Amino acid sequence: MLWVDKYRPKTLDQAMVHREIAQNLKKLVTEQDCPHLLFYGPSGSGKKTLIMALLRQIFGPGAEKVKVENRNWKIDAGSRTINLELTMLSSTNHVELSPSDVGFQDRYIVQEIIKEMAKNRPIDTKGKKDIKIIKVLEFIGKKEGLQLPSGFAARIAEKSNRSLRRAILSFETCRVQQYPFTSNQAIPPMDWEEYISEIATDIMKEQSPKRLFQVRGKVYELLINCIPPEIILKRLLHELLKKLDAELKHEVCHWAAYYEHRMCLGQKAIFHIEDGHTMIPFGQNTMQIWQLLMQL
């Protein structure tokens, strides 16, 4: 056996060159929250070694039991049909291929593989994180002597947007508002979410310098209470879309993305938030609003 194969790391713990990356990958697997990953680097830098170690960490030895197959695809590309052939390695848990082997038509191969995998292995959009949150909520409920209706903890976990802290806070809020719990009990939103909903209502009711000043104060209050500016903008967009006519929604989404990008580049979030959410939905002039705001 060549040394390159004999001393190739088989597990993430054995990695020497990319030890920090390997430990981060191991942590993701341990927490059962492994996202989409992109490995990049020059040839021979250890990408495949890390990937195979990751697969073994997730799926066990079965990741090494691969088969070679020649696949043929007939792809409808509008006015013509493309015939493509590619050699692949695959196990029950992964597929290994080199799309560049078919040249500039590589994107068709990738698209077909994704479609095939999505059809045969439905994607779990919630992942496994909700299961862990549910277990924590059930543990807290047991310690507090609370009786949880079937599915109640799962509903809180789903509403929490995969945030354990938020789930626990919502759980405690439900306990304060109503106990014993009921199976259809409403899961209340967070206080800051209700506050942003009020801001959206204020914006829709009136577009004036006075209202602009009031909205600015409320947004600033959210910021000083440590609500991240990108979360404020995203939630405000969500609330405004509920209230806007269909023809305005696409334009509002476009400008929300524009101002979110500007906010990432700038230093003072309040400037970019107020500039965006007061101007875009109602077609006012940006410079006029900004000058008016500075005067106030």
General description of the model:
The protein is mainly α. It has four domains: 1-64, Rossmann fold (3-Layer(aba) Sandwich); 66-120, no CATH class; 125-177; 191-293, Zinc Finger, Delta Prime, domain 3, CATH 1.20.272. It contains 13 helices and three strands. Strands 1-2-3 form a three-stranded antiparallel sheet, with helices on one face. Strand 2 (80-90) and strand 3 (95-96) form a beta hairpin. Helix 2 runs parallel beside helix 3 and helix 10 runs antiparallel to helix 11 (246-265). 16% of the residues are buried. May be involved in DNA replication and thus regulate cell proliferation. Heterotetramer of subunits RFC2, RFC3, RFC4 and RFC5 that can form a complex with RFC1. It holds the Pfam family RFC_C. One of its GO terms (biological process) is DNA repair.
Q: How are the elements arranged and paired?
A:
Layout: H1 3-6, H2 19-30, H3 47-59, E1 67-77, E2 80-90, E3 95-96, H4 106-120, H5 129-143, H6 152-159, H7 164-177, H8 191-205, H9 209-224, H10 229-243, H11 246-265, H12 269-279, H13 286-295
Antiparallel strand pairs: 1-2, 2-3
Q: State the end-to-end distance.
A: 77 Å
Strand content: 5-15%
CATH topology of the largest domain: Zinc Finger, Delta Prime, domain 3
* Succession of helices and strands: HHHEEEHHHHHHHHHH
Largest sheet: 3 strands, antiparallel
| Uncertain residue segments | 276-296
The structure class reads mainly alpha
Count every helix, treating DSSP H or I runs of 4 or more residues as helices. Answer: 13
Number of strands: 3
